[in-house]
Amino acid sequence: MxxxxxxxxxxxxxxxxxxxxxxxxxxxxDFLGHSRLAPDEVREILDEIELDNVAxxxxxxxxxxxxxxxxxERLAERTYADHDLENVIQIADRIMHHPIDVIVGVRxxxxxxxxxxxxxxxxxxxxxxxxxxxxxxxxxxxxHGVEVVREKDAAAYRExxxxxxxxxxxxxxxxxxxxxxxxxxxxxxxxxVFVPHQHTWSLEIVDLPxxxxxxxxxxxxxxxxxxx
Length: 228
Description:
Blueprint: E1 5-8, H1 18-32, H2 39-57, H3 61-75, H4 82-93, H5 106-114, E2 118-124, H6 127-137, E3 145-149, H7 154-163, E4 171-175, H8 178-187, E5 191-194, E6 215-217, H9 224-227
Parallel strand pairs: 1-2, 1-4, 2-3, 4-5, 5-6
Helix pairs in contact: 1-3, 2-3, 3-4, 7-8
């Protein structure tokens, strides 16, 4: 096989991520203690806030903390003080202190792939936060480059391919998000591989395209060694 250019997502593709946000949300719901709204209803309101704020504030634990704070101020049924607001912020801040839990099979698979192909970490979010997680993961030696963008849309894919002089027909996006990893990569004329994750963020889930020459699905990250 000719050398392929593999753009590989980070959160919930290489290491666990959203599960920590889900746990933080559960902690937030307990702290909020709303008398009428079920957790799913609180989640709907938080989702609305996150969608409204993402264009201005982007992604990451700091943005999540800001969104939780706004949700708390909207839904709190009791008089609250500064220390209550600080507690909400700390719920989000604790996400950054979790150890990086690299997904089973990732290291061995990256070691196999990097000897045969050109690997670039391609992720979205807060640049400093994502780069810190990448450093803590110790996966750096397997990658030829790292790119953190504010949003992974078709324009972002076209830009990285052009700047890095990748061949679109031999460039694949590998990730767990249909919204950010699969559809925009295909729209940009690239190929894509979907790696499912049970805790993918709900706002990243949309319908997948039908399998084709340009789009493949695997059961887990380790299966990439059989594709490439």
